[in-house]
Amino acid sequence: MNPPFFSGYEVKELQFEVADMPIRLLRAMNVDELLDRLLAKGDTHEDVLDERIPYWAELWPSALGLARYLIENKIIGPGTSVTELGCGLGLPGIVAGKLGGTVTLTDYLEEALQFAAHNWSLNCEGQPNCVQLDWRYPNPAVAADVLIASDITYEKRFFEYLPAAFRAMCKPGGQVIVSDPHRQVAFSFFESLPSLGFEVAHTAYGIPAWVSTHRHTIDVYAIKPGPVPDQR
Is pTM beyond 0.85 here? Predict the structure, then answer.
């Protein structure tokens, strides 16, 4: 039998549960091949210079940690607007939709949005709202009551942009929920947020071994934007 394909990629459908919520996700099988496609474009290609690595193709432990947090903490219900940054395969946004939220899925790469939209159709009714977005240039038009993101703090080069993105894309009185796989590089970023006018609460989760044989602790940060401190 020939392997299934979607949007030009060999794929596999995953079926699992997060906090007793059934989920179906389609993911690309050969991530190394996707990386080879990127590198084959040459050192001077825009995609290579901007390091548009196909991280979207993986189901990352941080996405499962964030999804579990959303289910267990009941912060999303009917009418709650939710925007996911860097949605990848779309798991946290899909969970938000299954909880009744009005969801916008955003990602920098069109391929990710294609998979996220398909995965939405496997789990939720109606058409998803998908928006191509670079968080270095946040779009207030998709600001939401709850802004969610998993595994976006893996490189220091993003840190200078994220506080502005949080403020621009979180509605007044709302909150930002970010998950990270306990990466040391991210600690300083989250520790810096209170000095920038954000309230931060931290929760740690263990992740089942089938997800990752290396990392089992996921940090989830609930972040509330406050007034920008006076720098005078």
Answer: yes
